[in-house]
């Protein structure tokens, strides 16, 4: 059975996530550019589970996170336009399509803003560690990762409830 293809307007939270995502990407790029001249030739590029630096690379590698943020933004923005093509835990019908599609789009929207925020945080921390302002990524890195896991579990649960 083919799924209905609906045109569902963005929710207010999706619009807010778009603004936040773009702001985080731009802030990351601007901060990196402002700090560029202060950065040493070698910067941290990897952490161990304790949040301590265990890998170093050239300072140009710091642009990978903003670039990845842009790729994630574009990819998830395009993906969110096709909720009818997602995999769902229950059958999609005319009656539940709008609920399920909106829920799925909200999951993608939350994940987009959370992943971009994680990359923005890492970009900021890597820059600060390179400049010796801080020693490690801190506990907030794990908080952000936990939020991403929680969001995924929450929306899977909601998908089941919205049958």
Percent of residues in helices: 55-70%
- Biggest sheet: strands, sense, closure? 2 strands, antiparallel
Beta content comes to 5-15%
Total helical elements:
4
Based on Cα principal axes, name the global outline: elongated
Rg calc: 19 Å
Helical/strand content category: mainly alpha
Distance between the termini: 17 Å
What is this entry, summarized?
This protein has 163 residues and is mostly helical. The protein has 4 helices and 2 strands.
Task: Tell me about this structure.
There is one protein chain. This protein has 163 residues and is mainly alpha-helical. The chain has 4 helices and 2 strands; from the N terminus they run αββααα. It has one domain. The chain has a two-stranded antiparallel ribbon. A hairpin with a 5-residue loop joins strand 1 and strand 2. The model has no long low-confidence stretch (mean pLDDT 93).
SSE order and pairing:
Blueprint: H1 12-35, E1 42-47, E2 53-58, H2 64-79, H3 97-130, H4 140-161
Antiparallel strand pairs: 1-2
Pfam family, one: DUF1648
Protein name: DUF1648 domain-containing protein
Transmembrane segments: 12-32, 62-82, 103-124, 139-157
Question: Could you list some keywords that capture this structure?
Answer:
163 residues, mainly alpha, two-stranded antiparallel ribbon, 7% strand, transmembrane helix, transmembrane, DUF1648, DUF1648 domain-containing protein
């Amino acid at each position: 059975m083919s799924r209905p293809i609906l045109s569902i307007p963005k929710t207010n939270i999706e619009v807010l996530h778009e603004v936040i995502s773009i702001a985080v990407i731009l802030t990351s790029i601007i901060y990196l550019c402002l700090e560029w001249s202060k950065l040493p030739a070698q910067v941290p590029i990897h952490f161990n589970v304790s949040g301590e630096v265990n890998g170093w690379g050239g300072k140009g590698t710091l642009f990978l996170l903003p670039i990845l943020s842009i790729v994630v933004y574009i990819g998830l923005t395009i993906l969110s336009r096709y909720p009818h093509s997602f995999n769902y835990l229950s059958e999609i019908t005319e009656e539940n399509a709008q609920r399920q599609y909106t829920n799925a789009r909200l999951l993608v929207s939350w994940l987009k803003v959370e992943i971009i925020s994680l990359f923005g945080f890492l970009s900021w921390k890597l820059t600060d560690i390179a400049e010796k302002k801080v020693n490690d990524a801190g506990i907030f890195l794990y908080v952000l990762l936990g939020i991403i896991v929680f969001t995924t579990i929450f929306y899977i649960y909601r998908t089941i409830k919205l049958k």
